[in-house]
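#struct-queue
[09:14] JT: dropping the first one here, sequence first, then the structure tokens:
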Amino acid sequence: MHHETTRHARADGISVLVVEDEFLIAMDVVMMLEQHGFAVFGSAASVPAALDLLDTGRPDVAMLDMNLRGELVTPVAERLRELDIPFVLASAYQSTDFDGCGSLEGAENIGKPIAEARLVDALRRAARAS
């Protein structure tokens, strides 16, 4: 980890749903978020797991990988939009790479590999905008 934690104000417990199918990336993201004062609502590696988590409660914001083992994350994005929960994308893909991804339109994509400062700043912006 970098010393970027000193440069950013803490996130005051903003709760984040992490939807990422690569276990090591998900663990790294969870650690980054906790170091910056976010509360991790849950981590899901698949669309059904993410939807199950959203049935249990409401995070303040979510981070979505666009492609979960070949399945698009759009059903999760649609549910988040229905619940009025903002989200950011963390994907090597662009949402324009896929047709019919209207639920992903307008979401910030911080790209991959995930840069800690970009992730933290994007989640804060999304949470403030909601």
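[09:21] JT: and here's the second one, same format:
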Amino acid sequence: MSITIRNIKPEDNVELARIIRESLIEFDVPKVGTVYSDPDTDRLYQLFAEAPASCYFVAGEDGALIGGCGIYPTPGLPTGYAELVKLYLTAATRGKGIGKMLMDKCYEAAADLGYTHLYLESFPQLAKAVSMYEKAGFKPLNGALGNSGHFACTIWMVKEL
């Protein structure tokens, strides 16, 4: 397994949108009020290029794009907080530690960008991901922070960096 992690490029947009939407369909996550219906899902490179203090990393295996994860300054978050966003991998590559590799890269980048906390939103259907977040030190919250626009999410977590 030859995994590479790099910054997002414009040509990654179509494949990342496909991976994200297929993952949500696979786990029967709502389409409305999630990244599935978010128009920015089709323009992730531009979204992160236009947002100061943000970054998005993609993972590749033997030259094929297999997923990604990013840090985004979601409006309305407390000072020092950013959101860990759009962590998705192809079905065939989950459970191999690649998600952890992406998250570790994001933690390092978030600290370099001056963030003190990372916030995330998820769903009970993504139980393996939620378990991974818990093992990484994310703690549950009683409600959403900030204004992600993803109102269908029902799990909210935060981690101090």
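[09:30] RK: nice, looked through the second one.
[09:31] RK: DSSP finds four helices and seven strands in the chain.
[09:31] JT: good to know. The two ends are 29 Å apart (CA to CA).
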